[in-house]
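Open question from group meeting: does this chain pack into something compact, or does most of it stay loose? Before anyone orders reagents, we agreed to write out a predicted structure and look at it together. Recording both the input and the output here so the notebook holds the full record.
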Amino acid sequence: MAGATDRSQQAILRARQLCETELKGNCELEVIDVYQRPILAHDGQIVATPTLVREFPQPVRRLIGNLSNTSGLFVGLNLDTKGKTGR
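Structure tokens returned:
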């Protein structure tokens, strides 16, 4: 998260909603402020904000933006969408 911008806050909210509703809490979400922890952001290859990184299962996937495109989010994270509608 780059500071507390609206775009970053929207991305955090959507990521939390995804973890709670679709992944049923079977995930770990860590929010990193790139201004406060620039080395961690560099090591994680975060070059734009906001960025969502899915580390497991491999391969690592990165999505940039406020995560408002739900269907793109599912495709980008390679989540199973069978039986899901309205994406």
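Observations to bring back to the group:
The radius of gyration is 13 Å.
The chain is about 35% helix and 10% strand.
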